[in-house]
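The instructor's notes for this session suggest beginning with a concrete chain rather than abstract definitions. Hand out the sequence below and ask the class to guess, before any prediction is shown, which regions might be ordered.
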Amino acid sequence: MSSRNAMRTATLPAPLRVGLSRGGLEVKSFFREKEAVLFTFAMPVILLVVLGAILNGEIGATGIDYRQYLSAGIIAAGIMSTTFVGIGVGIATERDDGTLKRLYGSPMPRSAYFIGKTICALVLSVLETALLLVIGTVLYGLEPPGDLGRWITFGWVFMLGVASCTLLGIAISSVPRSHRSASTVLNVPFLVLQFTSGVFFMFGDLPKAVQQLSALFPLKWMCQGLRSALLPDTLLVQEPVPSWEHGRVALMLSLWCAAGLALCLTTFRWKRRDDR
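After discussion, reveal the predicted structure:
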């Protein structure tokens, strides 16, 4: 069976074959760094547990516990942290220490590098989402999607969220001048978006100007899409528009995928700014 699988892998196009190998290497390398593993998986869990202990109560007359609303938002923020922040900081570090320069000069297809990063982001996002779902279910009564339609919604929101934020993380990795500034450059916008996109606070309670500004970015739409899959429709009375707007969610996340890809193709650098 193993030889048959090896033969199938060997018939894949070289960039995809090498990309799959790099994806496995990226995942193994990540789990060898205990600090990165702890920060990536523990931080969203800590936020969910601590805020869940402080902020609780029913949302209006919806019958929905605020902590269930918080769980959906933290899942969306966890996806963005793993992809946008994690990938961006990782690439900036590899550029600064010369890893990207060495890979650029190697025979490896360049697209394989990005395939590997995307696979790693997807694997980590799946694990983190599953962990947060379990905690939300056990502690706060959050219910997984109750029918096939909601599972499908959850799936496409998850995939578009991972794709858009991964592409944006790759693109923004070229902004920091060094790995020392990368964490600040990526975490500052991420932190602001968490407070303005419906992660910690009811999105409908935010000022209209904040709602309109946040609607320009993907995190707001990820939160809304995940709420539609995980929470009852009775919550719609608390939404700015009495509809989950699935078409608009898909459109905005797809537009961010396209924008992220365009930025990657035009701004990505394999070398440091001071390299020639």
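Then share the key points. The first helix runs from residue 2 to 10. The two ends are 48 Å apart (CA to CA).
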